[in-house]
Amino acid sequence: MVSKNQIKLITSLQQKKFRQVHKLFIAEGAKVIEELLNSNFELHYLYQTELIFINVSQDKFEIISEQDLKKITALTTPNNCLALFKIPVSNVVFANDLTLVLDDIRDPGNLGTIIRLCDWFGIKQLVCSTQTVDIYNPKVIQATMGSISRVSISYQNLEDFLSKNTMPVYGTFMDGKNIYGEKLIEKSVLILGNEANGISPSIEKYVTNSIAIPRFGNLQITESLNVATATAIFLSEFKRKP
């Protein structure tokens, strides 16, 4: 049975300030938890409604009822397992290969999908502005489907980071040059901006190459692409062209 103190701790981790205090984050679902167990993330404790992970030390898990799982889950429809993992010390990332930079991404689903895209396209380094949503938000963790264990992610002052960068900097804009006609340099920095406002003016000044995904629809009245969808297209082009 999950105690009141355990419930209080686990539910508090849905908020960033308590994740920072306890240095823990929530992961739910067998796929996500398995990926994290097989990575460098350290398990704090595991709750499961049936014996799913047989290799976890007995002092690190307990079998609970579905009713108890409902009390601690962050999901609308609970899965069959929930784990707490320790938040590792963040490593500072330096751009030396294709590096993705996110300027103020706010939607957890978008960030989780972008992390998964980085994993798919072999992007090892992701740099987030300090205003970008927390990668340990439960919705972000869920959307990564475990890819967070294979991408190096850091939160930095983007102006400081970009001022020290020596590689070309591509910025994504609605009025940029058609990406399908550009010669892309893979060893570079690629910046994507906020869902509503795009790249901020303070970051725009570091951009050396402005690129865009052209609209092909007859009316051409669609305002913009979802930032995660745009990320997939941009990364695909950078990897496709030598």
Describe this structure in words.
With 242 residues, the chain is of the alpha/beta class. Helix content is 31%, strand content 21%. It has helices at residues 4-12, 16-22, 30-37, 66-72, 108-121, 138-144, 158-163, 201-204, 227-240; strands at 24-28, 43-48, 61-63, 81-86, 99-102, 125-129, 152-156, 169-178, 189-192, 209-212. The strands form 2 sheets. A 6-stranded parallel beta sheet has the order 7-6-5-9-8-10. It has a 4-stranded mixed beta sheet with strand order 1-4-2-3. The longest helix is centred in the middle third of the chain and has 14 residues, at 108-121. The model has no long low-confidence stretch (mean pLDDT 93).
Q: What labels would you give this structure?
A:
242 residues, alpha/beta, six-stranded parallel β-sheet, four-stranded mixed β-sheet, 9 helices
Q: What's the topology here?
A:
Blueprint: H1 4-12, H2 16-22, E1 24-28, H3 30-37, E2 43-48, E3 61-63, H4 66-72, E4 81-86, E5 99-102, H5 108-121, E6 125-129, H6 138-144, E7 152-156, H7 158-163, E8 169-178, E9 189-192, H8 201-204, E10 209-212, H9 227-240
Helix pairs in contact: 5-6, 5-9
Run of helices and strands: HHEHEEHEEHEHEHEEHEH
What is the straight-line distance between the termini? 57 Å
Walk across the major sheet and give the strand order: 7-6-5-9-8-10
Please outline the major beta sheet: 6 strands, parallel
Q: Identify low-pLDDT runs.
A: none
- Mean pLDDT over the residues: 93
